[in-house]
Structure formats: structure tokens, C-alpha cells
Amino acid sequence: MIESLLVANRGEIARRIIRTAKRLGIRAIAVHSEADADLPFVAEADEAVLIGPANPALSYRNTEAILAAAKATGAQAIHPGYGFLSENAEFARTVEAGGLIWVGPDADAITAMGDKINARNLMAAAGVPVAPGTTDPAADLDAAVTAAAEIGYPVMVKAAAGGGGMGMGVAVDEAALRTEYDKVRVFAERMFGDGSVLIERYFPRVRHVEVQILGLADGRVVALGERECSVQRRNQKLVEESPSPAVSPELRSRLLAAAVRAGEAVSYRNAGTVECLLDPASGEFFFLEMNTRLQVEHPVTEYVYGIDLVEEQLRVASGLAPTFDPDALTPAGHAIEMRINAEDPKRFFPGPGVIRTWVEPAGDGVRVDSGYTEGNTVTQFYDSLLAKLIITGATRDEVLERAKEAVAGFQVVGPKNNLPFFAELLDNEEFRSGAYDTGIVSRMR
């Protein structure tokens, strides 16, 4: 097993990784910006290194500073968490070239799945269903118009190098396409350094369902069930649950088999997620993208399968067998995660500030993975995620009732927060029925 681990991230995910590392007797090393010096993850690490100012380009995305911290502390491995450098193939290569262990998939897999068009083509070749769309980037607006006419409106205009719900637009006709194409291309060039654009069929009423995969040290790829991620604002998730209330045993079998094929197509190792769009009416599903990292919503899978995914990541990176029997996976129970963000609960605009009161709920089936505590300052420099409220139980109905109590008992005073939204959602009949789709938030507003 790895003996010392540098966590190249911040907030709740850094704290989460540090917790598992320390339980396993691994020396946990944090890196932090000036703005984060007082956050819990810094205090809880065995060692902490300041790597730069608040601007993430000069700290959490500063590869030289992170590698220097690893060298200075004698770190044996680097865990990137999610976001920042977690899907940066060049960073992964540099880490390994420097003799360190990269806790994640290899750089070739990250590269293969990082380009949405290349990923679609790879998945289609592997027999994974993909939505109708372009097999090459739309080189210019005329090419996009031609492709959209062949695919049929409405279409999704996507940044080929994008991810995390960013760099996407919907066009219902040619006039809208002409506007969205330029918007997405310019955004993609600015955010990802690559203006390549993908055109694919847009499904107005779909569910967003993903499968957790784990590439084992012995070369096998296993699927650890599915997660429902259809409660979204601006294509970014707010709630995830496992198992999905829309997935039957027969559909689950097909979904998981396709996800394993996806992983095998790129010789995947470590944790990853195969994201799909599901048409609940027909039972058809289509590959959306693969996230080559640990997901924000991994705790719901941990509960249903009774494992610690960070521990499994560390075991794979160390060349060790998993803690579970891959041939006898037995999911049980239900779990829902709500992302508590520092944002307006109506329009979801960020609302940073000083946390004057922070009281976490407790009780049976309640887990809180938080990045902050009372007295901390939520700044504008980073993602608005404050904490993840994970509720578990034997059945979905039990979880829904526990969730209502937990949301009511979670107190955050200072920055704006979206707890009122979750209180509203948990009383929403569409959500409670389980028969919801990606449009549920817009219908609530």
C-alpha cells in the first residue's frame, strides 16, 4: 500500500481523501492556497504546504508548485480528487515521469476520453450505444448546419474538450444553431484551449444516468451500479441517487454491461464514470461521456455497495486486489446525495461570504461530507460546493423522509445557500414519485 499521499485538491474532496488515507495509516499531505489556509482539510492533514495565492491557476492548477510540494514532503503518490488537474493527461504523465504514483487512470485513457468526439467514436466501435451525431468536429458553421440537418433538430452543440456540464447549448432550428455554434466555440477556446465543436441529437425529455466503473489492478473492469443524476441546473448536478428509480433489472444489466465495455475499450484502471442519457419511454440509452476520475457523487455508490471508493482507488494504484469480491457484488439499500452550495436557491447564482453559523444534521442514515465549518470564508475563487448531504436507508421512501428531517436540521448562516431548494424538492410530487427527468428544476421555477 502507498505510504504517503499528496492530495492535489481542496475543500470537501481533499478532506474526504485525507480521512480515508489516515484510516489506512497513510501519511496525508495537503496543498492549499492562501485563501484556504484556515479550512478544515488543511488542519486535518498530517502535513500541509502553501502552493500559491487564491487564483487557482497559480495554486491548484499550478503543476510546478504541486510537484515541488510532493518532492519537498517526500510524497509517494498524488491523488487529484475531481476538477482542477484530475483529468489533465499531461499532469498525469508528468507525475509518473517523476517517479510518483498517479491515483487515477493512465494518461492515455484520460486523453482518449477527454475529447468528446474521439470518445463517441471509440464507444461506438466498442458496441456502446451513442446518440446520432458528428464523428468529426464541425469545422465551421456551414459544416454544423449541414450536420444538424442530417441529424434532425433539436441538436446539442457541445465543446469537444468540455466536461462538467460546461460548453453546451441547445439549438431548436438553424437560426438558433448559428448563434449557439459561435457561443460554444468561443467559450471552448477560452476555457479549454480547444474550439472544436460536436453536434449531436438533443433529447428534450431524458434522464441522466451514470455507471460507476472500477478498473482493477489485475486488468478487469467492474461496474458498481448506476446513479440517477437528473436533478440539474445549467446542466450541472444538484442531486444524485442510487439505484435509479427509472432503471429496471433488465435495463440495469444492459447499462452495466455497456459501461464495462466502455472501460475495457481503453484498458481503464482505477475509478471512472460512464455517463448516459436515458429515454425513459423507450428504455434506450446513449453514451454521453466518460469522467476519468472520482465523481462528486461517489458516496451514494459507497453506501449501496458497502465499500470505500477512495480506498479502492488507492489499492488499485498500489497494485493490490480490491476489498470486495468482483464476482459477488451485492448492492443493497438506497442513497440520495444533495449538493449544498453557496448559491441563491431560486436563480442559483453564487453567494460567497463568511459562515457565521454551521450546524450539520446527524442521525441514522445521515452523512455529511463538508469542506467548511463555522468561521470559514467562502470565496468567489472556487466552486460553490459547501458540503454533500448524503442520506441512506433500506428503501427510497425511508431515505426521502430522513432527507426532509436532515435538510430542516442543516443550519448555514452567512453565505447564501440552496437548502430551501432541497426542502422544496423533497415535497415535489414529481421527484417523490421517481418519474422525473432533467427538466424538473426548470419546471419548479
Structure, described:
It is a single chain. This protein has 445 residues and is of the alpha+beta class. It has three domains: 4-103, 3-Layer(aba) Sandwich (Rossmann fold), CATH 3.40.50.20; 132-201, ATP-grasp fold, A domain (Dna Ligase, domain 1, 2-Layer Sandwich), CATH 3.30.1490; 207-444, 2-Layer Sandwich (D-amino Acid Aminotransferase, Chain A, domain 1), CATH 3.30.470.20. The protein is built from 15 helices and 20 strands. It has helices at residues 11-23, 40-44, 63-73, 89-97, 107-114, 116-125, 141-151, 174-192, 249-265, 298-305, 309-317, 396-409, 419-425, 429-433, 440-444, and strands spanning 4-7, 27-33, 47-52, 77-79, 101-102, 155-163, 166-171, 197-201, 207-215, 221-233, 236-242, 270-278, 285-291, 334-341, 353-354, 357-359, 366-370, 377-378, 385-393, 411-413. The protein has an eight-stranded antiparallel β-sheet with strand order 13-12-9-10-11-14-19-17, with helices on both faces. It is globular. The model has no long low-confidence stretch (mean pLDDT 96).
